Amino acid sequence: MRWLIYGLGGGLGHAVRCASLAGALEELGVHSRVLCSDASAPVARSLFHDVVGLGREEHPNREALRRRVEQELHGRDLLLLDTFPRGILSELEVEGRGAPRFLLTRLVAAPDARLYGEAGWAELGLRGVVDIEPNLGWLPGPALRCGPVARRLARPHLTPEPDVEIALKSAAARERTLRLLRRLPEVRWRTLVAPQLVEGFTARILVGAAGYNLSYELAGAGIWHIALPARRTLDDQARRARQLGALVQSPEAFERRLRALLDATPRPADVVLDHGAFARELIDYVASRTR
After folding, report:
1. Each residue of 58-88: pLDDT tens digit?
2. Would you tell me which of 18, 97, 220, 240 could form a disulfide with 150, CB atoms 3.0–4.6 Å apart?
3. pLDDT digits over 5-60, tens only?
4. Tell me, what's the pLDDT at 117?
C-alpha cells in the first residue's frame, strides 16, 4: 500500500501528526509520503523521512496546489486528508478523480452537515471520515471514532529543571505570562520554540494555547496545562481547554491556577491513543471502506 498524507491544515500540528502517523504506518507495511507546507517540512522530516514541502507559489494558490496534489497522487492508493474538510482553501474539490479520499478531522467550530452521513461524504468526495477527537462529542453520524491521538514523548533532562515552560505564539499573551512570572523569583521558567515543542517538555506546568497536539500530549504525559486558547476561525480551542479542565479566562484566574499548580501533586496521566494503535485501526477502517 502507498498512501499520500496531506497535512496542510494551517499549522505545525498537522505536519507533526501526519509525520508521526506515517512512521507508524510504515512499520505496518504502508509506505506513505507526507505533503505539508515548506515552513513545517523541516520539523516533519525530523520525525519521518519522506516529507514533501509546498512552496508559497503552490499554497495558497488553489489551482497550483490542486495540480501538485494530483501529481503527488500518481502511483498512490489513497489520499489521507489531515486538514479541515476540502482543505483550508477548498482546493481539493475535484470529484471522482484519483485515489479514494479519507478525512481525519477533529473539533470544528461549525462543522459541515455533510460530514454527518455517507451521502454527504460522497458529495465531499470522501470514502470515509475519522473523528480523532471523539471525547468532545462534536460530530454525529457514522464516522470512525478513534482518539484522541498523541505522541508518547520522552522528557528531556535539564538542570536545573524548570517549574514552568511557555509555548505561546501570541506576543501579548507571552508578555502577560512573563510579567507574572517575573513577580515570582522563586519560580524557574523557560520559553519554547517550535523544535522544542516537538522534542518534548521538561516542566511540571506548561502555559500554552489549546491546540490539539499540545493539549493531548500534555494530558498523556501528565503535565499540568494552563491553557490560553487562541482565537481560530475553524476550530474551538476554548471548548477543548474547558473539556480538559485547563481553561483560564482572566489574568486573575491565570495567577490563581499557576500558584495552585506550583504546589500541586503531579497531574494524573490521561489515556490517549498512540500512533501505532491509531495506524492499525485506520488500516482496518480503510480496508472495510474500499473493498
Report:
1. 776 778 888 888 889 889 999 999 987 667 6
2. 220
3. 998 765 788 999 999 999 999 999 999 999 998 888 999 999 999 999 988 777 76
4. 95
Q: ω before 156 within 30° of 0 (cis)? A: no
**DSSP codes joined into one string, 156-200:** ---SSPPSEEEE-S-HHHHHHHHHHHHT-TT--EEE--HHHHHH-
Q: Residue 107: which residues within 8 A CB-CB, separation 6 or more?
A: 133, 136, 138, 212, 235, 236, 239, 240
DSSP helix/strand/coil, 82:
strand
- Grid cell, residue 166, equals 511557555
- Class of residue 183 by CB neighbours under 10 A (exposed 0-12, middle 13-18, buried 19+): exposed
The residues facing 191 across adjacent strands are 166
What are the CA-CA distances from residue 168 to residues 101, 142, 211, 259 (Å)?
34, 36, 11, 19
Task: Report residue 82 as a C-alpha cell.
Answer: 489531515
CA–CA–CA angle 193, 161, 184 (5° rounding): 85
- Residue 289's Cβ-count burial label (10 Å; 0-12, 13-18, 19+) is middle
Distances (CA, A) of 282 to 17, 76, 117, 143: 14, 17, 19, 12
Query: 22 to each of 32, 33, 116, 264, how far by Cα in Å?
Result: 6, 7, 27, 37
> pLDDT tier at 232 (50, 70, 90 boundaries)?
confident
- Whether the pTM exceeds 0.90: the reply is yes
What whole-number distance in Å separates Cα of residue 226 and Cα of residue 255?
10
To 10 degrees, the CA torsion angle through 68, 286, 105, 147?
Answer: -140
> What's the one-letter identity of residue 236?
D
